[in-house]
Amino acid sequence: MAFFTTKGRTFEVSVVISNKPGVREPEGETILHDLVAKSGFEQVESIRAGKYLRVRVVAPDPASAKRLVEKMCNDLRIFNPAAHSCEVSIGRVPGR
Amino acid sequence: MRVAVIRFPGSNCDLDMMTALRTIKGIEPDLVWHEDASLGGRDYGAVILPGGFAFADRLRAGVIAANSPAMARVKRLADRGVPVLGVCNGFQILVESGLLPGALLRNSTLKFVCEWTHVRVENTRTPFTSGLRQGQVLSMPIAHGEGRFFLQRAELERLEKDGLVAFRYCDASGKPTAGSNPTGTLHNIAGVCNKAGNVVGLMPHPERAAEALLSPLGRPDGALVLSSILRKSGGGRRA
User: Fold this and answer.
1) Fewest C-beta atoms under 10 Å: which of B7, B98, B115, B225?
2) pTM for the predicted model, two decimal places
3) B205 is catalytic
4) How close B69 comes to chain A (CA, Å)?
């Protein structure tokens, strides 16, 4: 594929998809109310659940790896922009 | 009229939809596999995306199916004004393909809800509601875990202002109450349409309510939705 380079190193890129602020997230609410708050962790104020993708890509440098994954998320609608935010960040570089 | 029913891996209401459509005189349905980018090379008068769990709802309900070869063709047909209906998972696929606005999030109860509901007809200008009356109350069942329609406030207000809500959950008398909202869906929304009116998605299953025998009220309300496409007055064409 045109935007895919096979040259470079392997990078691990993290993708976190979560509901935007203001969009109710019932799974996190249930974890908070029915587990955490009932188990002596009253200091915990809020919990938001989401989806996590750990992506390994080959790229010349970390910035390119991140750009590639951002493009993938946007082009393939890995998140729904009407309700979700999507955070892409470079994780650790796996040992080879 | 020839109608394509698109089958995805994980569709499970496709055969019910075929059976319901066959009971309507004037509709000839074909089952079309999702990898068929040309939809069998046939010219269809309407396309229906049935319910189920396409691709096991992986990543998010509807999103993988939205990228299938058949959907690329369905998008082009929709742009030309061909009527397209998505039921349940089909609605989720239409939202994820960008043919309909918004998102269908996990039900606020986190539970899979399977029950009969009442929905009020909010817009009779679509090809799937043209045979219905404004404000008519239909009885149809829902069965889904991700059906909480969501849009940011400003966009939701615009959707309402433009009259793009097609169906709303209500009580038996037609009032959209909190108690008749099964999933926490915003504004009791059960179905929406696009601006042109030819693309409609709804969470309730008309095919499961298409015969009087299937309905607890003995009413074949779902058949009224499906047979609407035979009415010439049913909008759909771009101005």
Assistant:
1) B115
2) 0.91
3) yes
4) 14
Tell me the backbone φ, ψ of residue B131, rounded to 5 degrees: -90, 5
Of A23, A26, A27, the CB nearest to B150: A23
Does A74 contact B at CB distance below 8 Å?
no
Chain A nearest CA to B75, separation (Å): 15
pLDDT per residue over A16-70, tens digit each? 999 999 899 999 999 999 999 999 999 999 999 999 999 999 999 999 999 999 9
DSSP for residue B208: G
Residue A17: beta bridge partners?
A51, A86
To which residue do tokens 């299938």 refer?
A: B68
CA torsion, ordered B205, B208, B237, A75, to nearest 10 deg: 40
Per DSSP, B174 falls in state S
Domains of chain A and any CATH numbers: 9-22+49-90 (3.30.1280.10)
A-B CB pairs within 8 A amount to: 44
According to the model, what pLDDT value does residue B236 have?
Answer: 41
* B114 included as an active-site residue: no
pLDDT > 90 fraction of chain B, expressed in percent and rounded: 95
Q: For A63-90, write each residue's pLDDT tens digit.
A: 999 999 999 999 999 999 999 999 999 9
Burial of B43 (0-12, 13-18, 19+ CB in 10 A): exposed
Answer yes or no: is pLDDT of B1 > 80. yes
For residues B175-182, average pLDDT:
98
| List of domains in chain B | 2-230 (3.40.50.880)
Instruction: Please state, in angstroms and rounded to a whole number, the distance separating the CA atoms of residues B60 and B95.
Output: 11
